[in-house]
């Protein structure tokens, strides 16, 4: 689900390391966990064959984003990501002021 109104987004771009090393299971768990977070409006995510990925999450407020960032289980996975799964990542938090669509 994508928002039709003003909201906040977190843009997470990353480059994966070689091998799975438990990444798929952890990623699935994070998607389950974030789906229950108050203020989440939706998520778009894609990863290329070269290991570069982008995940964009849409939120009602900055407070909701901060609550997710500090969630205890999410914090554990963040640390594991730095240690094992990502060779690089970049996180941006932005405000969406308007949106244009074509088609669906």
From TrEMBL:
InterPro entries: ABM_dom, Dimeric_a/b-barrel, Jasmonate_Hydroxylase-like. It comes from the Bacteria. Coiled coil: none annotated. SUPFAM superfamilies: Dimeric alpha+beta barrel. Residues 9-79 form the ABM domain. Pfam families: ABM. PANTHER family: ABM DOMAIN-CONTAINING PROTEIN, BLL5343 PROTEIN. This is ABM domain-containing protein.
């Amino acid at each position: 689900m994508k928002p039709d109104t003003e909201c906040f987004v977190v843009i997470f771009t990353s480059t994966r390391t070689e091998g799975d090393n438990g990444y798929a299971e952890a990623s699935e768990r994070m998607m389950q966990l974030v789906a229950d977070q108050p203020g989440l409006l939706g998520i778009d995510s894609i990863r290329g064959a070269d290991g570069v990925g982008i995940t964009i999450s849409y939120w009602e407020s900055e407070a909701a984003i901060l609550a997710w960032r500090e969630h205890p289980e999410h914090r554990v996975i963040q640390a594991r990501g730095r240690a094992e799964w990502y060779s690089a990542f970049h996180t941006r938090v932005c405000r969406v002021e308007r949106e244009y669509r074509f088609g669906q």
